[in-house]
Write the structure tokens for this entry.
Amino acid sequence: MIPLPLDVVAEVVGGRVEGDGTEVVVSGPVVIDGREAGPGGLFVAFVGEHADGHDHVPQAAAHGAVAVLGTRATELPTVVVAEPQAALQRLASYVVAQVRRDGRPTVVALTGSQGKTSTKDLLAAVLAGAGPTVATHGSFNNELGMPLTALRVDQATRYLVLEMGARGRGHLTELTDLVAPDVSVVLNVGTAHLGEFGSREAIAEAKGELVAALPAGGVAVLNADDERVSAMAALAPGRVLTFGTGDADVRLTDVTLDRLGRPTFTLTSAEARVDLTLQLVGAHQALNAAAAAAAALAVGVSLEQVAESLARVASLSKWRMELHELPDGVLLVDDSYNANPESMRAGIDALASIGEDAAVRRTVAVLGVMRELGADSASSHHELGEYAAGRVDQLLVVGAEAHGIHAGAVEAGTPSVFVDDNEAAIAWLREHLGEGDAVLVKASRGARLDEVAAALQ
């Protein structure tokens, strides 16, 4: 963060300083976890249902924090406020505004029902090759994660890449009111969080808020393959740049997969054409790469530079299509961070492509619940089981909430085993997996199937 005297922090957030903060300057990381504090940092203390962040101030101080933002005085000089979250957001908005007085950083915001984090990681890698870049860590994309990311900027930052999530109408507007984007990227309108939104039309309306937040000189980067997204061009006050497999400004063609499911493809723009191969698993990563390319073109990076950077990306955020070749000859694809019907099908397709290699004896999909699907939950799970039929050799379905996947697979004639929990899944896999098997592990975060993937490793 840019250096700020503690009394300035207090003035910005509407708080008061408790303790001797007259000589304190906040210049390090702003964190909500004391273990992540650093020299010169600010620790934001929240009081939750089961924990009180103020109790962790000594831990933050031991890691170098020099001040606290909280609701009561602590051992460190403390800016006391009534609502730490609102104060954190005001501080982030202020810091970005101060840095943007020099015309930088360019702010690129991304949203979509799936693929946000992977595309954000790809775009961040591309832009980092063009200048100092700050980007969202993992999927820290909500009303806390977004301001914490924004607070990492300084005068040297050229690009700020913000992943933005929404669980209802107005959420993206709240985030863009804090930090307005120069470029807004909308990837897709799917069924993730359908239970909270109520309909795909409501999801589209919420995602469209990111486009409507652009200034007159901003650029909307939209998926031409998704009719709900392409319709958002009507909301754009300025230029629109599209990506997709058909008639698009950045066109994706000729996608092929190697034995490990890694895509080779062509990207074509008005000025250039490039062929590239990703080190990532899944054909869907090619479309994510096209989205990242379009966003990079929007800020002036050439397509040739984009291709060079994308080809070097070896990994994404944790638990997203991680490829592990295990010592016992098993190939593991760990995509256990989250799941919805669209991303589940993409994962199954990736596993199926790996299974086409003659060296693969059998494909095994370890699948758990897809949450937040509302009234469509039962049918979506059953349909996913049917979708897996003929694409994978064996299903292992984990947890009662996911039983519909098992039922759909069995009805469609695909071998499927149902187990109650992760412990039982691990036991089954240890007994039945062997050399030459390829395994996909995927479910919504709450299922914690990362525990299964970790046990295999």
Summary: The mean pLDDT is 95. The two ends are 37 Å apart (CA to CA). Residues 352 and 391 are 6 Å apart (CA to CA). The chain is about 35% helix and 20% strand.
